[in-house]
Design a protein that fits this description.
single chain; six-stranded mixed beta sheet; alpha/beta; D-Maltodextrin-Binding Protein, domain 2; 2 domains; five-stranded mixed beta sheet; 11 strands
Length: 336
């Protein structure tokens, strides 16, 4: 009986396997199975919803450099500001869930934006999985160096002396900087106008020049101008005084009890990224945040690094969405 070519081939394989035993079988299996590269085997992109040179950008690049050392691959930061953070958030959410595109979120800012822009194409809670908490970059109430006030109370009296005469700057509509200003305005019943900018880099020069008498900005972003005697800090919007600024009171200590924002940051991945990749990223982030050189460099700029696992970040994110939804409603803030 004539054998078909296929049968000839199968017979030949059986002959090889019988001759080589199990080793031959294993070799044949390995040759037939494509190799799976260990993660990561190429650069990782981290998207942020803020422009270059601001506090979030500085923080992300510093952490990205340390993560690159831990993971053995470049970590590239991409700035995608605009639309209350929605542009960057949406781009990250729509990325393939491979672990090569991540999102570093300012959780307070994102919660505020979600409360204002109800129809965003992506949502931090629903469309992402938390990797780990990074820490916080406290905000501070800053005023021009030449403004004749030395305390929060003096600033309030200064603004009230000329209603409708002054502006307060912010990083943009729907940012933490904006909401802090609104809470401060509401607490003291100030008749002052909000002027939004596209980030601190654009806003701070106008505060320095007196076009705005106050702004809530990150300590990281403001410190160069404070050290240059262009701005002065009246209070910090955190629960405790900062080691970097031991003589500056918290807003609560200064009398503004309703203005409190820890301004936390966390690293997220698009939903669907395999759990083992999320775990590898979390472990690398934990190690990165313990690097002495990173801790000292960020502390010098007012950033407080503290790793928290995915469950801690998940709870913080959910709580912030509840808190800031109420704050946005109470302030009557609408999209612009």
């Amino acid at each position: 009986m004539m054998l078909s070519p296929v049968m000839h081939t199968l017979a030949a394989i059986r002959t090889v396997l019988r001759a080589c035993g199990c080793a031959g079988a294993v070799l044949l299996f390995l040759c037939a199975t494509p190799a799976v590269a260990a993660y990561p085997d190429r650069p990782i992109q981290v998207i942020i919803s803020f422009p270059p040179a601001g506090a979030t950008d500085v923080l992300t690049r510093a952490i990205g450099n340390q993560l690159s050392r831990e993971l053995g691959q470049p970590v590239v930061v991409e700035n995608r500001p605009g639309a209350g953070g929605a542009i960057g958030l949406t781009a990250a959410a729509r990325a393939a869930p491979t672990g090569y595109v991540l999102y570093l979120a300012a959780t307070s800012n994102q919660a505020i934006a979600a409360a204002i822009y109800r129809n965003q194409a992506a949502h931090l809670v629903e469309d992402f999985v938390p990797i780990g908490l990074i820490g916080s970059v406290p905000h501070a109430l800053v005023v021009p160096e030449n403004l004749p006030v030395k305390s929060v109370q003096e600033l309030v009296e200064y603004i009230k002396a000329k209603p409708r005469s002054y502006n307060f700057a912010s990083q943009g509509v729907g940012t933490l900087s904006h909401l802090e200003g609104e809470l401060f305005k509401a607490q003291y019943k100030l008749d002052i106008t909000h002027v939004p900018y596209k980030g601190s880099v654009q806003a701070l020069p106008d505060v320095v020049n007196g076009l705005a008498v106050m702004m809530f900005d990150s300590v990281t972003g403001s410190m160069p101008l404070v050290k240059g005697n262009k701005l002065k800090i009246l209070a910090v919007a955190s629960t405790e005084r900062l080691s970097l600024l031991p003589d500056i009171p918290t807003l609560k200590q200064a009398g503004a009890e309703n203005v409190l924002a820890e301004n936390r940051f966390g690293l997220f991945a698009p939903k669907g990224v395999p759990a083992e990749i999320v775990k590898k990223l979390a472990d690398a982030l934990d190690r990165s945040l313990k690097a002495p050189q990173l801790i000292s460099a960020m502390a010098a700029q007012g950033a407080q690094l503290k790793f928290g696992d995915d469950q801690e970040l998940k709870k913080i994110t959910a709580d912030e969405h509840v808190f800031w939804r109420k704050a946005v409603t109470d302030a009557g803030i609408e999209p612009q």
